[in-house]
Queue: 2 jobs
Job 1
Amino acid sequence: MSLVCLTDFEALARQRLSKTSWDFIEGGADEGITRDDNIAAFKRFRLRPRYLRDVSEVDTRTTIQGEEISAPICIAPTGFHRIAWPDGEMSTARAAQATSTCYITSTYASCTLEDIVATAPRGLRWFQLYVQTDWELNKQLIQRAESLGFKALVITVDVPVHGKRRNDIRNQMDLKMNLMLKDLQSPEEKFIPDMQLSSINSSFCWNHLSWFQRITQLPIILKGILTKEDAELAVKHKVQGIIVSNHGGRQLDESPASIDALMEVVTAIKGKIEVYLDGGVRTGNDVLKTLALGAKCVFLGRPILWGLACKGERGVEEVLNILKTEFHTSMALAGCRSVAEINRDLIQLSRL
């Protein structure tokens, strides 16, 4: 079967993965309303193209935190990539390096940070942290990532507790051991997580950000901001960026779709820090709409795992390249010759 769009990879990945693994990757919290709305919300916007412009050359390059990337399309942090492919995050990292794509590596990566760096030494990587109750462990993880050349610290803020994911409960999934051992292609292989999972820190709050700023020189990005109030607090606390995200609809169900929350956040921060988005991006038009509404780039979660499940490293490359090609086409058809020309005045989205 020819795979020509991201949903083609979704369909094939569903066939390839066990039910338990598929349910883990695709599952949303509670009724899955936010998960589904992340995708549907993009279709409530329409593009207004401008024609008779010279688009014989279209440049998709941009920068994030001062680093150039080939297009405003990056890889979001998702854990346990070895669910989808034996080499897990190492395959993902090689694909990111090959396509000049930023890859945010999860706290719960199923390969060591050292192995990920060794397999793709030239790749642009950020490190995502779930703040743990053990503050010494937090410090060790951050300093280890910094010493390995990760370029930013992404702190996830929307998991004070885990959302209720019904299918995971029905499947009696235990990420710490059972699922990983069952779904590795070599059952005899003993999987040991890179770190001992301690508890998510439910007391983590704004005042703790100064502690992180004291122990690292990395730019700090907050992932999971959805409101103008929190966006304003992020600016006040001098972080360097925000990822507008609802955790793929896996945390608080019936929270806003990411693209809907984006407008509120962008308006609140007034260009003072960079804003990014994850959640629901499936087409080049989705990327164009996100940038038109003020985001610097998008991050892909589930589609990366679909590519990994289908073809490993090559599948991730294909997913990224398909979306980049679609985005290039969308830019040309909308009359945009560079990412800098994508803005609300030029695109003028109309909500239906």
Job 2
Amino acid sequence: MSGELPPNINVKEPRWDQSTFVGRANHFFTVTDPRNILLSNEQLEKARKTIHDYRQGIVPPGLTENELWRAKYIYDSAFHPDTGEKMILIGRMSAQVPMNMTITGCMMTFYRTTPAVLFWQWINQSFNAVVNYTNRSGDAPLTVNELGTAYVSATTGAVATALGLNALTKHVSPLIGRFVPFAAVAAANCINIPLMRQRELKVGIPVTDENGNRLGESANAAKQAITQVIVSRILMAAPGMAIPPFIMNTLEKKAFLKRFPWMSAPIQVGLVGFCLVFATPLCCALFPQKSSMSVTRLEADLQAKIQENYPELQRVYFNKGL
């Protein structure tokens, strides 16, 4: 809807209904749009100012509803929902498609030698560590020591797991061997994400009521949040790592790739990219970003505090991260 800006638009919430998968998918197709990474700092700051001003009741003359929502999604794509800080460029969800298509395509092309596997798995897990840190839940800062420990443990554990699984490629058919990188990525995600977000598991993440009033921190909420993110990330990688192997296995038997073998990597990267354009937003949409859980599933001390101060409250809400 265009035209003059109506009052009282809730720009703290997404434009679409987040209680439905379709609404969440529309939201994430906008947030993960790769074109967002091409925006200049000036455009990002303009969007941030527009949203902050609107929240304070300051409406620039001539601003339309569509322009407001566009500013909101530019803001959401680049600024952390809890801290408000500008996120690292390659860690933003809008960078997922170009970064992942390149890394995953290379992982699936160069998987036959141990040095190549080691290099691309390290690149992949380092990138994942940046993404997991950038899209963490909560607003508590990490010290350099905590961040360094998390990075080393996450990448080392994930790469070791990936190398172990890739060793299986020597004992299986070429087609099955192409799927080993996916199994490695899935297993590595189960290690990398919890380790990069280990502070949340130790001290908890902020939980609020429906109106955003902070009630405390919960490690149980962090466990649910991280589990949902792991499931989303594994399924996000699945199409790009499951569909291209069938296509590439067929193409490599054809005369074209035998004549131009150097085309294998670009074709693989393109196929992965096509899959990720759809898999990234759809898998982000599997669970609401503003997740919730019953008060009865919280830690006993937090339950007691909430029941004392808010006896009618049944559910708490939290940002699960991405």
